Amino acid sequence: MWITFNRPESRNAMTWNMYDRLKSACASVNDDRSIRAVVLTGGGGKAFVAGTDISQFKAFRTEQDALDYEAQGNVVMSTLEAVRVPTIAAIAGPCTGAGAAIAACCDLRIGSPSARYGIPIARTLGNCLSMPNYARAAAMLGIPRLKDLIMRARLMDAPEMLACGVLSEVTPDEESLLLRAQELAEEVGGYAPLTLWATKEALRRIRDRTVPESEDKDLILACYMSQDFKEGVDAFLAKRSPQWKGE
């Protein structure tokens, strides 16, 4: 099964409806025993997913808005991780913010030469991740590299993504990415389904033991209810540099 994030005019930035559709697509996979692998990719070939659609944050007014957003994001990511078959992210162009979280939930990731990965929220919005998303990213990248990415608000290019294991391979050119994703899906789809499922589930359980039991409510509210977050959203939509105050 192919799942395509299809808003190329907005670099496939996720709307609330797209998050709901992703959950529905995952449920369809689990209900259809004939499906043996899933490929996720971005429409248009210029981006995987460049975060959440920032314009939607203009509607944030209350603490509950922020908590609900991160809680719903956790449901979506957990649903994707729980898909019973191998999931493959085929990444071209930016894979940032929510896109980085989606890719981290996938079992395998391949990229084209244009692939870029990062979580540049310290430069763009001034928000934070949920505790589960920090844990996923840290499990994939390691804590030192994750700190480097977030604190420097930088993006890794395809060679670095390959070197640190974010990608298992980089295709020779842009045009061959989807063909290679299909080949990889057919390869893993031919192996023992229960072995693959048990491996996914076992490693998820091991990873989840690293998630602190303490809530992240204080972190989320400190960022999302700040003047800096409002400034970040306004500046992003106005295409100007934000003026951070730490307030």
What does this structure look like?
With 247 residues, the chain is an alpha/beta fold. The chain is 50% helix and 12% strand. It contains 11 helices and 9 strands. It has helices at 16-31, 63-81, 98-105, 121-124, 131-141, 143-152, 158-163, 177-189, 193-208, 217-224, 227-238, and strands at 2-5, 38-42, 49-50, 87-91, 94-96, 108-111, 116-118, 156-157, 169-170. It has a 5-stranded parallel β-sheet, with helices on both faces. Strands 3-5-7-8 form a 4-stranded mixed β-sheet. The protein is globular, with a radius of gyration of 18 Å.
Secondary structure layout:
Elements: E1 2-5, H1 16-31, E2 38-42, E3 49-50, H2 63-81, E4 87-91, E5 94-96, H3 98-105, E6 108-111, E7 116-118, H4 121-124, H5 131-141, H6 143-152, E8 156-157, H7 158-163, E9 169-170, H8 177-189, H9 193-208, H10 217-224, H11 227-238
Parallel strand pairs: 1-2, 2-4, 3-5, 4-6, 5-7, 6-9
Antiparallel strand pairs: 7-8
Helix pairs in contact: 1-2, 2-10, 3-5, 5-6
Gist of the model:
Helices cover 50% and strands 12% of the residues. With 247 residues, it is α/β, with parallel strands linked by helices.
| Number of separate strands | 9
Oligomer: single chain
Biggest β-sheet strands, sense, barrel: 5 strands, parallel
Number of helices: 11
Q: From N to C, what is the helix and strand string?
A: EHEEHEEHEEHHHEHEHHHH
* CA-CA gap between termini: 45 Å
- The strand order across the widest sheet is 1-2-4-6-9
